[in-house]
Amino acid sequence: MMKNLALTIALTGLILGSTSHSSASENPVLLSEMFGRGIHAFYLGNHEEADDLFSSAIEHGLEDPRVFYFRGMIAFKQGKTEAAVTDWEKGAEIEANSRVNRSIGRSLLRFQGAGRVQLETIRQSAKLAAFEAAMKRSEVRYGELSQTPSTEPIVAGPGITPPPIPSDIRNPFAADAASGTASVVDNDALKNAMNDPFAGEATAAPATTAPTTNNDPFGGNAPAAGNDPFGGAAPAGNDPFGAGNDPFGGANPFGN
């Protein structure tokens, strides 16, 4: 017991000596060493020594929720329920608002029973309160941003300047615009569809001319009988089926 107490005093002296030039939070190695020795003493059943180590680490700035949880366990085992709840609430607040992901639940596995149920209830309540506080801060911040008018003047950006029109381009509708007779296109495509396109033109009967005699291909004379290519009479003896030319000799080739 005296040896452990001397070790605690030595560690405390190292921390105090180092804090003459820097804050206690800048000595995480010494504070972690003190917390680790307190855990070791706690599981060995040396609750008084563990309580001294946990208290020294807390006093010198150790911001670890586990050190409050374990010191609260010692108080709970000693029947000091109010002191235990105070430590557990402080540790739960640090855990809920800490960005460091620690395996808190694994460290508390060996602490069971009614005390563990009460500790878990405190932890969950702290996490819910931290979440609600963060949501309220976000709503307030959003309201401030939406209601605060911007003091910066709005400066119009550079516009698009169209290219200059060349002077040698002539407007084909300039004359109509000057005379006031510019035509307007009618959107009715069938407006004059039923009008006679030839209504304004005079219709004259086509001229008829009799053909002249010079246009007769036969010279106005009927061909003479001697000009008949067939000689004016049917050729005789040239009938391919005549009696003398019958290939079957006038007999029935089928014997009938």
Describe the structure using short key phrases.
elongated; 256 residues; single chain; 8 helices; mainly alpha
Descriptive notes:
The protein is mainly alpha-helical. Among the domains are: 1-62, no CATH class; 65-148, no CATH class. It has helices spanning 2-18, 28-43, 47-59, 65-77, 81-96, 104-107, 114-147, 174-179. The longest helix has 34 residues, at 114-147. It is elongated, with a radius of gyration of 62 Å. The model is unreliable at 14-24 (pLDDT under 50).
Q: Taking Cα atoms only, what radius of gyration do you get, to the nearest Å?
A: 62 Å
The average pLDDT is: 74
Q: How many strand segments?
A: 0
Structural class: mainly alpha
Briefly characterize the structure.
The chain is 46% helix and 0% strand.
Q: Which secondary structure elements does this structure contain, and how are they paired or packed?
A:
Elements: H1 2-18, H2 28-43, H3 47-59, H4 65-77, H5 81-96, H6 104-107, H7 114-147, H8 174-179
